[in-house]
Design brief:
Layout (H helix, E strand, L loop, with lengths): L2 H6 L3 E6 L3 H12 L4 E7 L2 H11 L3 E4 L8 H11 L4 E6 L4 H10 L3 E4 L4 H12 L4 E2 L1 H8 L26 H11 L4 H8 L3 H15 L4 H10 L6
Parallel strand pairs: 1-2, 1-3, 3-4, 4-5, 5-6
Length: 231
């Protein structure tokens, strides 16, 4: 047997980290289709991920972003500092260039959407296994657009909840966030500030992207937690 052929048969030890059991089960099933991968453990939060990487020493870790205790970006950053050889794939619901950029700057080698076909997920895992970076095609298209990309500092200070601080927003964005979370409609905010309702809707989306939040209810919780609006 040639050396090249023997190398192909070396199994890659994989750790799966996601707080949803169904997501972990689905990824495990995808990995079963390629015998070069072997799942050695599963984690349901950020702290457990760090512990299992230390104990199990996987070659590759597949991380969700929105995990309890520590988010995937923070975990990625810490893992890269402690385990330089560990390869990391982010599997996320966030269709966002800024979130993808933050993950890559933290040390991930691939960014894949949970809504992508199984074939794309497997392609990402194989690419990273073979020391190649990978972006899901839809995210790659976002990077190729001409829209300016807001630089995201993956090393910015975060609270214990892993959230980005309000200082990440401009004063105008903080003002809009406060008014929206106080219960005012986009048209009311637009009228008071003196800009169009469409601009308010656009800035609300940019605020969510900067803070890496996906729903309005999560924005409200964020605003309360950081004292932007009273509880």
């Amino acid at each position: 047997m040639s050396k090249k052929r023997a190398t192909r048969q070396v199994q890659i030890k994989v750790l799966i980290a996601d707080d949803h059991p169904i997501a972990r089960r689905g990824l495990r099933e995808i990995l079963k289709t390629d015998p070069t991968f072997r799942v050695v453990g599963e984690a349901s939060d950020g702290d457990e991920t760090l512990r299992l990487v230390k104990d199990l020493k996987p070659d590759l870790a597949v991380l969700d972003i929105s995990m309890p205790k520590r988010n995937g970006i923070d975990v990625t950053r810490q893992l890269r500092r402690k385990s330089a050889e560990l390869k990391i794939v982010i599997l996320s619901i966030h269709f966002s260039r800024e979130v993808a950029r933050a993950c890559l700057r933290a040390g991930a080698r691939a960014y894949v959407l949970k809504s992508d076909p199984d074939e794309q997920v497997l392609a990402a895992l194989r690419a990273v296994r073979d020391d190649q970076p990978f972006l899901t095609p839809r995210i790659a298209e976002l990077f190729e657009t001409n829209k300016p990309l807001e630089e995201c500092d993956a090393d910015a200070p975060r609270g214990l909840d892993g959230k980005i601080p309000p200082e990440r927003l401009t004063q105008r964005e903080q003002q809009i966030l406060k008014m929206l979370c106080e219960g005012r409609s986009s048209s009311e905010v637009a009228s008071q500030i003196g800009i169009s309702t469409r601009t308010i809707e656009s800035q609300r989306g940019e605020i969510k992207e900067k803070l890496q939040l996906t729903t309005f209810s999560s924005l409200v919780r964020y605003a309360i937690r950081h004292g932007i609006v009273p509880a």
